[in-house]
Structures are given as C-alpha cells and as structure tokens.
Amino acid sequence: MHVQELRLGFSTADTSYPSLVFAPARLSASFRSSSGEPVAVEFGGVAAFSWQEDQDDLLPGEPWDGPCEIFDSPLLAAHPPGKTMYSVAGLRHIRFHFNEWGRLDVLCTSFSKST
Fold first, then answer.
1. Residue 60, helix vs strand vs coil
2. Using alpha carbons only, what angle is made at residue 68 by residues 62 and 69, rounded to the nearest 5 degrees?
C-alpha cells in the first residue's frame, strides 16, 4: 500500500465542517475553504465511502490536511469488480483530510471540483 498526495487546486486545510450528500453511485462533498470560498467536489462511480473523525493512523507520506490517493488499500481489495453493482474496474481510493474535522474515504471512478 502506498500514498500519493494530490494537488487539486484547492485546499482541505482549515475548512468548515464538510457536508456530504449521497445518491446512487454519486457523492458530493461541500465546504468553505479557509478563505471562505465555497468548494464542492463531485465523486462519480462511487462504490463505497466513509467518514471518520479520528485521524491518528496516518500512513507514511499521507497528508494530515489535504487530499491523497491510496493504492492497493484493503478498502479497494474489499470491492473487486463485480462484487456490488458499483464495484467496477478502475476504482480509486481517494482520501480527503480535513484537519481536526476528520477524513473522507471514497472508492470512485472519478472526481472533480464542481462550480
């Protein structure tokens, strides 16, 4: 398992508490940046997600206050293609850290900042 930090053009450090909205295979996370700018991230092809407020178990190289992708994670291994309706080839394990608020783990095929 290894971690790659993501540079997405926005920060998850010192934000407002994120709001999550889920619909089949879609997840939206919205929050206000540290400068007060509204940010919304749309995840597509969502097979699973979780919110956790305890962040004490960071992986080597994992940022405490930013987004990353986790490769070969146990969460990905638990969702092989075909296991569920949305467990398809190409799933990615994306993790967003929101400092002291918590972290969001999403298994998805795509994600982007929405306007």
1. coil
2. 110
d(CA 40, CA 32): 9
Contact 111, 45 (CB under 8 A): no
- Which of 30, 31, 15, 37 is CA-nearest to residue 99? 15
The C-alpha atoms of residue 18 and residue 40 are separated, in whole angstroms, by: 9
Contact 10, 33 (CB under 8 A): yes
Return the closest-CA partner of residue 57 out of 70, 76, 48. 70
How confident is the model at residue 59, as a pLDDT? 84
CA 69 to chain centre: 8
pLDDT per residue over 32-90, tens digit each?
A: 988 889 999 999 999 999 999 876 778 888 888 889 999 999 998 888 777 776 667 78
45 Cβ contact list (under 8 Å, min separation 6): 25, 86, 88, 90, 91, 108, 109, 110
Q: Give the ranges where 1-115 is alpha helix by DSSP (H).
A: 74-77
